[in-house]
Amino acid sequence: MRERTGVKTLVNNDRKIRGAVLASGNGSNAENIVSFCQKHAETIEIPVIICDQPKAGIISKAEKLGVPCSVIPVMRVDNDTALSARAIQEKKVLDVLSSYNIDWIFLAGYMRIISVDFLSRFADQVLKINRVVNIHPSLLPAFPGKDSYQRAYDAKVKESGVTLHFVDAGVDTGSIIAQKKFTRIPDESFEDFKARGLALEYEVYREFLEQLSKGRINAAGN
Predict the structure, then answer these.
(1) Is the peptide bond before 73 cis (omega within 30 degrees of 0)?
(2) Distance CA 162, CA 155 (A)
(3) Residue range 15-217, CATH number
(4) CA distance readout (Å), 180 to 107, 186, 213
(5) What's the farthest any 2 CA atoms get from each other in the chain?
(6) Cβ(213)–Cβ(44) below 8 Å
(7) pLDDT tens per residue across span 152-181
(8) Could you tell me if 134 and 107 are in contact, meaning their C-beta atoms sit under 8 angstroms apart?
(9) How far is CA 110 from CA 12, 21, 116, 222, in A?
(10) How big is the chain by its Cα radius of gyration, in Å?
(11) Helix ranges, 40-140 (H)
């Protein structure tokens, strides 16, 4: 795992880390995270998964993993009340997180921009980061936002990859924890291109979780 600074910061791990996964889609990354934590249950655990899409694949995966999944969608409203609807949804999410005493958030394909107020609940004044982590399917700062694999593939990049980063108020602008890259194979399909990226996503997240479970992370930022 390539780290931007190589600086390690000791995390207070006097007690077991309690994390929650937030997901919106099929849930392969969420499954990867939960499976890792279940194998390291003495130091890190995922007692709850939260999903904002009632028909997402992660819901059935959570059941198979034996982890409760709270489905908390944003109610569809007109533009005048959209901000309030977002705030209501986030409050419900925070209520669930509080009930499980969650101290870290792991985003796994969670397709929502998290508000500053939400992030402030997980601000770590010692580490100078928010304890909210996201995996992004590109070598940031290239291709932030949605459809990053497709955009990179269409741009015919010679090299692509994935980025694990702390979440801030911007869109994929938080401090980078680690990046891994792969070289594009001539004439490969988009499906193969994306599959190689996904494999790196799983790898990078597991490596970070392993360091976190040992009480050490790269929190120095860029």
Answers:
(1) no
(2) 16
(3) 3.40.50.170
(4) 18, 20, 21
(5) 51
(6) yes
(7) 999 999 999 999 999 998 999 999 999 999
(8) yes
(9) 27, 9, 16, 24
(10) 17
(11) 58-65, 82-99, 116-120
What six digits make up the tokens of 114? 């998290």
Q: Tokens 């890792």 belong to which residue?
A: 36
Distance CA 160, CA 142 (A): 9
Strands 69-71 and 216-217, bridge-based pairing: unpaired
217 versus 43: which is more confidently predicted?
43
Active site members: 136
Q: Do 203 and 180 meet the contact criterion of CB atoms below 8 Å apart?
A: yes
Element (H, E) at 145: none
pLDDT, tens only, 40-89: 999 999 999 999 999 999 999 999 999 999 999 987 665 555 568 888 89
> Using CA atoms, how far apart are residues 168 and 164, in angstroms rounded to an integer?
13
Q: How far, in Å, CA of 174 to CA of 140, rounded?
A: 10
Q: Is the separation of the CB atoms in 138 and 160 below 8 Å? A: yes
- Scan for tokens 């500053």, then name that residue: 116
